[in-house]
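Box 3.1 A note on notation
Throughout this textbook, protein chains are presented in two layers. The first layer is the amino acid sequence; the second is a token string describing backbone geometry. Keep the layers aligned when reading.
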Amino acid sequence: MIRRAIAILISCLAASLSSGAADLHSTAYRAQEYRAIRQRLLHGWGTWNSSNILEQVHLPDGAAVAMSFKETNWISADYLRSALIGVQDSEAPSVRPGLHALDGSFSEYELKWKELEVKITSAAVGDGTDDLVTLIEPVHSSALPHEVFVAAKMLWNQPGAVSRVGDELEVQTGARHLRVHVTASPVPELYAGQDTPYLALLLDSPVGISVGHRRSLDEIRSILTRQRAALLARAAQYGDNAATYAGIEAVLGWNTIYEPKYDRMITTVGRIWNEEYGGYCLYGWDNFFLPYACSLFSRDLAYANFAEHLRSLTPDGFIPNVDEAEGRTSWDRSDPPVGSLMLREIYKRYGDRWILEASFDDLLSWNRWWPRARMNGKLLEWGSSVAGNPLHEKEAHTRVAAAWESGMDDSPMFEDVPFNPRTSMFDMQDVGLNGLYIADCQALAEIADVLGRKVEAAELRLRAEKFTREIEALWNPGAGLYLNRRTDTGEWSKRISPTMFYPLIGRVPTTDRAAVGEMLSARANCFISSMIFSSCVASP
């Protein structure tokens, strides 16, 4: 036991000597294997521009074919130049997303704006070329005239040139020469509101766009049908779960973007947040769940998302609650520790040792941070530390920010619980955090075993054992449940949440606690209703 403790002490000392700026100890995105993955991902057509789904973007050169629309009425003309899914604004277009292949090879959506309603479908041709086809179909006829403008442009200040040559657009990007064709005859519309070369087309019937080879409407429809069928065939392998599989792929596909600051492909929580926060927004635990979800479809994108999220690691050694394009990071708070859990599951699927090696030290740094920064007595609690705040975030070191660290910002669990500015934590011990932390220690210990990191594996298991013992103080025999407990009054919290079950993730209940099974059955109905509530019971 003494020898084991000495080994752990040595490893902790080594970790403290190696601490420094985040960029110095975040290694996953520098790995040679990841560089090859990144090169493979940054290729081909897709809805890669986070701020506008009306653009099909070609990587790695940043060439884009953009659609915009014009509606003319008796007194004015209105223009639609961009669209996003889910914007809650009466003046914004309504977008109903459809299928979306994760690699960008197929996408479909319906767009409704003023009197215009169209279906837009795009596909990479998939014959070894860089060809693209898009079909714009009016859903119904309109009393008002509409036009669609097809423009060519270069995004993100990438080098290139675009021009109109007759009834075509040309894009020159280094060695690549792209031609943009349309199936209708352009009209001489000068009031187009465009700032790059464009083709104006009346939208009184379907319009096709082809990049590369010129293709007819029938040829475009044939390619779209083939690519859609290929997507559905992949989903069909999952039988009764085919629709679920296709739906998950679509959600991930619509939220996978090219991020130019770090020249990378990432999957984000939502494009609206990306736009609001300056270009991209990564959230602490959300962006560890996303690599796992992507692993169902793409090894490359799963690894890319995991490696790039670790880039967010702060100089203090933790994954922040939020990391944004404009340099804003939550220096004061983290997010639930699920990174090691997700990495372990991804490894089980693919078995690539390099991603474990590249990620381990960052995850270990985060694991060590929790007891250093969030010990409230003998257990952990959510908090918000006194930290650098160069952009003057008003909620830093407040109860609001402490709730944000939990990943459940508005959870009733935190109502009436004081935030203690002296400890920088809620006056409570949280079942969910401690349950997840035990599971994090166990998962990271298993990763250490694979890597032969015996000292760190022993350290992690010792920590898991300690918190497994201490969390028993939160078992309430009368409730038959683990409950949060106030540290200022010693009272049990009466607010029940799904987080009360998180100890089960780390296999905390002992074998003699048969009551846990009964508790699960008895409490299940608490969380069932006609609506989904992820962080509170359906009824008191």
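DSSP finds 14 helices and 26 strands in the chain. The mean pLDDT is 90.
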